Amino acid sequence: MARRTGRRPGNPGTREAILDAARAAFAERGFDAASIRAIAGTAGVDPALVHHYFGSKDQLFLAAMQAPVDPRELLPTVLAGDPGGIGERLVRTFLAVWDSPAGTAGVALLRSAVSNEWTARLLREFVVTQVLRRVLNHLDVAPAELPLRGSLVATQLIGLAMIRYVVRLEPVASAAPETLVASVGPTIQRYITGDLPPQRDSAGS
Amino acid sequence: MARRTGRRPGNPGTREAILDAARAAFAERGFDAASIRAIAGTAGVDPALVHHYFGSKDQLFLAAMQAPVDPRELLPTVLAGDPGGIGERLVRTFLAVWDSPAGTAGVALLRSAVSNEWTARLLREFVVTQVLRRVLNHLDVAPAELPLRGSLVATQLIGLAMIRYVVRLEPVASAAPETLVASVGPTIQRYITGDLPPQRDSAGS
């Protein structure tokens, strides 16, 4: 595809136009189906400019989400070491991010996801493609079980964030991280590597 | 205290004035410290009128929260039977309420709690005084451990509601209730009756 230099390459609104188009694409079509080319088309710019500004599709997604941290930088710590300790390491890393200044952005994201269906979809795509898929792909887990295991992990982690940082219910709100690691870690471990029931959906299939 | 018949007994705004005063009192002072007498004073009515309209302090709180169900009607089902099955029964009852038409009100309450500090405080008081305290008081659990156990249960249940009904992450969003009962029930059971770590707060005490 030929470079089309006439399409707003230096416009100061270009970056925002790309991010708006990316948010729409990721929310509507999901991370996997969204393409840099289509996003560039919506924003009226050359795909090369999207790569120039944001790098990979993963990085564009993080920018579109205004994600305060890149899960790819944190996951090696979670995944390294004994597979039987992954639950505790995931909770420890999760709390370290949320207890840091980045946690403020996390609370804002959570508030937005709850009030806005569009942000909820982005958050869902983010959790699945940037965090859970990476963690679970690394482990020796049956592929058919990955979605249920991943979304169970999400129930416990999003609830921990809600109670500690949004609703601020004591003593979880002020507990030392290691108290929560020891309490919640085994839950995450069971959801990732433990026995789960055979899966059925509401229709009974 | 003498009945003061001059204070707006029949005003159609009286009910709302009492509920407004009640929400303020429960959010600011907490359920235990809020008194019917003080709420009546704020609303400019006789305390007897509050009892006449709403009954007990518990019932006034449920009305102020616009709670779609009364936990006292559901808890006997949860508490009856084998203590080792309380985790599964609590999840089953929780899902039955949220999967019913009452769940719509629950989602609205959750959305409001996330965007509004005042509703978050009401929700916290509701969860603690109307649900967790009743469940845990019924069980043979050391009183000093009740707050941590209760707020851990809250992390898992609020996260389950968030993922199933708000973020709608699959397969949890469409899973048959019994799949979730079998998956999440043991987590709740461990938080209620299992071994927990010694508790420390962030200050390291």
TrEMBL record, chains A, B:
This is TetR family transcriptional regulator. Residues 35-54 bind DNA. InterPro entries: Homeodomain-like_sf, HTH-type_TetR-like_transc_reg, HTH_TetR, Tet_transcr_reg_TetR-rel_C_sf, TetR_C_16. Residues 12-72 form the HTH tetR-type domain. It comes from Micromonospora globbae. It holds the Pfam family TetR_N. The keyword Lyase does not apply. Keywords: DNA-binding. The keyword DNA-binding applies.
